[in-house]
């Protein structure tokens, strides 16, 4: 068990050459994706990759200006893809559950199904001050990475179910972005429930606990919605 954990951590610190790249992605015409935090970093690269496949992609971002700039960067890049997709923006702030609900409602007004939700948005371990809370008063890391992401996912379940009724088996998915710190940075037994609401002075530990929470949410969703044809996985 210990050796397996060490090998897993090593592969995350020093990832091997990829066996699946953008060249392996088949056409995604007619499929609908949401990528939270899609205006920067990994989310931006994912949206850029999907744009070349003919998919409809919703870039969920808390900044209208940054999202518009990111969309322009992707759609005006050369050479133009043979089968360009469509990128739409969703205003979405993990720090405020009202914003999360508004984003889900906006999506529901525009689409009847959702093929893939990628819960990518978040902040780093030092992205908030000690004792910081969300608008609704939750400890910032757990509030954003777990509570807000879970609410957004829950509100989109009807659209995921709708997609699963006609999509190929295993193709309707929810992806939760975790971290190697979910394994290596958490306290004994993973989560200290006595400090879950208040957090600790250790910002990295607070982050690690929230990323373990993403893994747990992904696993629980896989159990609950397997019969609906929805695949739920966590990734680093």
UniProtKB/TrEMBL annotation:
<keyword id="KW-0560">Oxidoreductase</keyword>
<dbReference type="GO" id="GO:0016491">
    <property type="term" value="F:oxidoreductase activity"/>
</dbReference>
<dbReference type="InterPro" id="IPR036291">
    <property type="entry name" value="NAD(P)-bd_dom_sf"/>
</dbReference>
<dbReference type="Pfam" id="PF00106">
    <property type="entry name" value="adh_short"/>
</dbReference>
<protein>
    <submittedName>
        <fullName>Short-chain dehydrogenase</fullName>
    </submittedName>
</protein>
<dbReference type="InterPro" id="IPR002347">
    <property type="entry name" value="SDR_fam"/>
</dbReference>
